[in-house]
């Protein structure tokens, strides 16, 4: 989630695109053993 927040904070134009529905930032964790991707709950 730190990475998701860092992207949001580092790029001011992101907030505008999120509010307009043109962009969503979703964190995820990739499990190298299983090959599965788990998305995180908090979305921006």
Question: Can you offer a commentary on this structure?
Answer:
- GO terms for molecular function: carbonate dehydratase activity; zinc ion binding.
- InterPro entries: Carbonic_anhydrase_sf.
- This is Carbonic anhydrase.
- By secondary structure, this protein is α+β, with helices and mostly antiparallel strands.
- It has one domain.
- The protein is 41% helix and 27% strand.
- The chain is built from 2 helices and 2 strands.
- The chain has a two-stranded antiparallel ribbon.
- The mean pLDDT is 85.
Order of helices and strands: HHEE
Widest β-sheet, arrangement of strands: 1-2
- Number of folding domains? 1
> Would you identify the regions where 5 or more consecutive residues have pLDDT less than 50?
none
Calculate the mean pLDDT score and round it.
85
**Which band does the percent of strand residues land in?**
25-35%
Give the overall silhouette.
elongated
Portion of residues within helices: 40-55%
Distance between the termini: 10 Å
State the helix count.
2
Helix/strand-derived category reads: alpha+beta
Largest sheet: 2 strands, antiparallel
Oligomer kind: single chain
β-strand number: 2
User: What integer value in Å does the Rg equal?
Assistant: 12 Å
InterPro entries: Carbonic_anhydrase_sf
Organism: Nitritalea halalkaliphila LW7
GO molecular function, one term: zinc ion binding
Protein name: Carbonic anhydrase
């Amino acid at each position: 989630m730190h990475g998701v927040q860092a992207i949001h904070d580092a790029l001011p134009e992101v907030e505008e695109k999120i509010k307009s529905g043109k962009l969503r930032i979703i964190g995820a964790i990739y499990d190298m053993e299983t090959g599965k991707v788990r998305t995180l709950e908090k979305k921006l």
